[in-house]
């Protein structure tokens, strides 16, 4: 039969953000015990008091493997792209509107990112280049200027770790940085934010990386 402690440990192993809050003493253990009580009872197979769960939570200590798998251990180099703009288009006009611009940006080997959703698409590139590019201006719904891109390299082994990208977003968001766009590829993610937040976001991410 499972013990309360082992069950609590198994539950926490799937919830890295809860573990982070416990580690930083930012969570009420009694409230957390109430939240997971039904789950613990189902796994243990009998009624369990909230006090017993709270005690197990207070004694929780992540294993070495869980510590090694903390999301902050997979934050790599931080790079900054400044002077960016985002151009927003309707999806059905998108590719035709930017076809010439993309060809020119490729030729110039300049930074750009294309994003496309169900209803809207976006082109992110340097503000200084926009007037020089072949873009169907009538198709542009909105332009957002004064942006920077903070790119985080994800270190090898990040793929199976729960919440790496979510952890990065949470780190900057909970410190008052508003995200305009989030761009993710397999081994890196870029947060597009207002220039005024650039230093703060970089400091937050660098500090997190230095803890690993």
Descriptive overview:
The chain is an alpha+beta fold and 212 residues long. The chain has 2 domains: 4-65, no CATH class; 73-211, VC0802-like (2-Layer Sandwich). Helix content is 44%, strand content 27%. The protein contains 9 helices and 6 strands, in the order αααααβαββαβαββα. The protein has helices at 4-13, 16-23, 29-44, 50-58, 64-68, 91-108, 127-130, 164-173, 198-211; strands at residues 75-90, 112-116, 120-126, 140-154, 179-185, 188-194. It has a 6-stranded antiparallel sheet with strand order 2-3-1-4-6-5. A hairpin with a 2-residue loop joins β5 and β6. α1 (4-13) packs across α4 (50-58) and α3 packs across α4 (50-58). The longest helix is centred in the middle third of the chain and has 18 residues, at 91-108.
Radius of gyration from the CA trace? 22 Å
Please report the first level of CATH classification, the CATH class of the largest domain.
Alpha Beta
The fraction of residues assigned to DSSP E strands is: 25-35%
| CATH overall fold name of the largest domain | VC0802-like
Fraction in helix: 40-55%
Count, helices: 9
Major sheet characteristics: 6 strands, antiparallel
